[in-house]
Amino acid sequence: MRWIGCDGIEKKDRCVIAAVENERRMLVSEKKDFNVMELISMYHDEWKYRHECLSKRIIQFTVITFFTTMMPIVFGIFEGLSLPDVPLWIFPVAGIVMAILSWWFCLAEYSRIDLVNKKIKMLIETKLGFEYSKFGLKESGWADLFNGRIGILLPNVIAVLQVLLAVFVIWLVHTGKLI
Predict the structure, then answer these.
(1) Most buried among 17, 78, 105, 166, using CB within 10 Å?
(2) What is the DSSP letter of 148?
(3) What is the pLDDT of residues 25-52, one digit of tens each?
């Protein structure tokens, strides 16, 4: 067996050692790539879990806030129903507070989703190469929270509609048109 660029026994041994070292580096490189894929898979599972949590919370907060806000109308429709010594305007005000809290919670949850999403993109671009990336990374800030993404747009729209509905119910209670 002839070794290219290797003359003598010492150089031959060094070439064998270099070949073994090169093979080890390739295996380590493949193992690193495998670990990157495993890491991306774990981040993707986290991303899916956070999306599921966000969608569940949006639905829960919307339903609870809606029913809390609409309590004065329910009491107006069913005349036998009443709460002693509780003014009706308390319910829409509680609906406004809950709408603001749910809006804040949803934006905080979306910022966590966005962080995981950016980590996945960064891993794909840095470890696997730019050719595997669908989109490039870009810098973002607070202005990114109000872009057209559904994770941001939906909580914003729902919070605004809930506050407007609560203000309308307060107006109905205040003007006496409810009862």
Answers:
(1) 166
(2) S
(3) 554 455 555 677 788 888 888 888 888 8
- The reply to whether 57 falls in a domain is yes
Q: Please, what's the b/e burial string for 27-40 (b: 16 or more CB within 10 A of its CB; e: otherwise)?
A: eeeeeeeeeeeeeb
In a domain, 100, yes or no: yes
Give 3's contacts (C-beta < 8 A, 6+ positions apart): 11, 12, 15
Torsion 133-134-136-139 (CA) sign: negative
Q: Which domain holds residue 142?
A: 42-175
For the question of whether the overall pTM of this predicted structure is more than 0.70, the answer is: no
Residue 17 covered by a domain: no
The number of beta carbons lying within 10 Å of the beta carbon of residue 41 is 11
DSSP assignment of 73-87: HHHHHSTT---TT--
Over the Cα atoms of the chain, what is R_g?
30
- Asked if 120 and 44 touch (Cβ cutoff 8 Å), the reply is yes
| Confidence (pLDDT) at 42 | 85
Residue 87 lies in a domain: yes
